[in-house]
Amino acid sequence: MFNNFLQQIYFNNRVIDYIIALAIFFLAILTITILKNFLLKILRSFAQKSTTIIDDHFMEAFQKKMRTFLTLLYFGSFYLGIYQLKIPPLLEKIINISLVALLIFFGVRFLLSIISYVLESYWIKKEADETRITAIKGIETFLKIIIWTIAVIILLDNLGIEVSALVAGLGIGGIAIALAAQSILGDLFSYFIIFFDRPFEIGDFLIIGEYLGTIEHIGIKTTRIRSLGGEELIFSNTDLVNSRLRNYKRMKKRRVLFKFGVIYQTSLEQLKEIPVIVGEIIKQAPGATLDRVHFASYGDFSLDFEVVYYVNGRDYNKYMDIQQEINFKIKEEFEKRGIEFAYPTQTLFLSKENES
Fold this sequence. Notes:
Largest sheet: 5 strands, antiparallel
Distance between the termini: 163 Å
Number of strands: 10
Helix content: 55-70%
Shape: elongated
Number of helices: 11
Low-confidence stretches: none
Strand order of the largest sheet: 6-5-4-3-7
Radius of gyration: 40 Å
Number of domains: 3
Strand content: 15-25%
């Protein structure tokens, strides 16, 4: 009697087939529960022993997304159980599409949570500039749009919709937009180069060709610079990326070269004293480091000396203060020793020939 009951057919399946499907489903649920507890125990133990924060975040994300994973696994258990039965093709197709949709949806959400964590932990927390934080959030949104677009295309392909024509259309449309907005896209990519490579930041003092000033704003298309004269200079990001820049804010020390000349009537002993005098003056100047002092050349109207020293810092006002003090000391010491600075002069020598 019992065997006859098990062999009875309902909706193209025997009773025993329904029992087997239910057994597989409940066995899978039990296995998932055991593995979940075991895996959580291992992850907690590993997170406590490890010193990095990545595994801590993975543990935290795993716990937060536990319901998501469990929903997906429970649906997989249901799929394994019902796979043992003979079901109508339409119902089978619906179940398959639902499984793919769940896999794509939960997979994308987990991937985006990892991306968001990396951006927020390693970039946003280390940034003090609000503009760069806004840009990072914009990049995060851009990545989300791209990932969800790819996910939708994959889902449409699994639904049986022909997506090759759609992808081709998007490609042609993208090329047309790129050609029409080539300059804008060029500035946009240059902005990403500036953002990631960081050749300069807000507050840096730059010299670009004949222009110079301080960076005030870095935008998606243009960068604004405040010149020493007070006016605002606006450069496209592409122009800045393609230019040779001098970033004085990142200068650790300033190399200074200056020259001066003394008159030709200066004696040899005085010429030999000059490098010693100037060298001692620079050595005693606070914030300056002497490199060299040399009698460099014979000029048209002077004996020329060349001096090189370093200012320990990038502050221009500090450099000018040091240079001014050095000039005062040189003038003072030369006056004490009767050494005269040269200036443009001409000496005319006349000779009187004896008349025959």
